[in-house]
Amino acid sequence: MDLEHKFCRIGTDVTVTGDNVVEGYASLFGACDQGGDVVARGAYTRSLKALSDDGRAVKMLWQHDPAQPIGIWDEVREDERGLYVKGRLLDMVEKGREAAALIAAGAIDGLSIGYRTVKSTKNEKGQRLLQDLELWEVSLVTFPMLPSARVASKGEGPQDAELHELARALEDARLNLAGL
């Protein structure tokens, strides 16, 4: 199966710290994306272990372009919420500098995963439940497929990101109920 990407719409509130650190959730467990896919808890476990065992790392790309690496993911891990990433934009790379400027200006704030589906099923809602994914890369993107996959704001840790995520989910639900 081919490499798949998840990208769709943009939000707001993003900055990069002075040392070009970027962090956020690239994927949230149990959240349905705009393509009707839901990632199951533990879907990345096998892939992250295999990468670690082989001494390899998840790549940080610009807009899923394999010719444009823009930084290094120092931390990629699953937690109770999803796939958390933290890394550094490389300012010696032109696109890394551009990405930092675009994030600082609020023009870019999306995170998106590039992966191959190893195992999936359909859930009771007819959505594709992604149970085992081979993670290749996490990109900074304009339009993430999972609207809540965002770069965290300056100084914002996972707990603060969770509160912002809850606020976005409630607003999305309100708009959904209102038919907007």
What are the key terms here?
180 residues; alpha+beta; Serine Protease, Human Cytomegalovirus Protease, Chain A; 8-stranded mixed sheet; 3 helices; 8 strands; 37% strand; globular
The main β sheet shows up as: 8 strands, mixed
CATH topology title: Serine Protease, Human Cytomegalovirus Protease, Chain A
Portion of residues within helices: 10-25%
Domain module count: 1
Provide the low-confidence segments as ranges: 7-15, 153-161
Q: What CATH architecture do you see?
A: Alpha-Beta Barrel
Give the CATH level 1 class: Alpha Beta
Per DSSP E runs of 2 or more residues, the count of β-strands stands at 8
Mean pLDDT: 81
Count of alpha/pi helices? 3
Structural class from helices and strands?
alpha+beta
Q: Which shape, going by the Cα principal axes?
A: globular
Beta-strand content bin: 35-45%
C-alpha end-to-end distance: 35 Å
Topology pattern, helix = H, strand = E: EEEHEEEHEEH
CA radius of gyration: 16 Å
Write the layout of secondary structure elements.
Blueprint: E1 4-5, E2 21-28, E3 37-39, H1 45-53, E4 59-62, E5 65-78, E6 82-89, H2 94-105, E7 110-122, E8 128-141, H3 158-177
Parallel strand pairs: 3-8, 4-8
Antiparallel strand pairs: 1-7, 2-6, 4-5, 5-6, 7-8
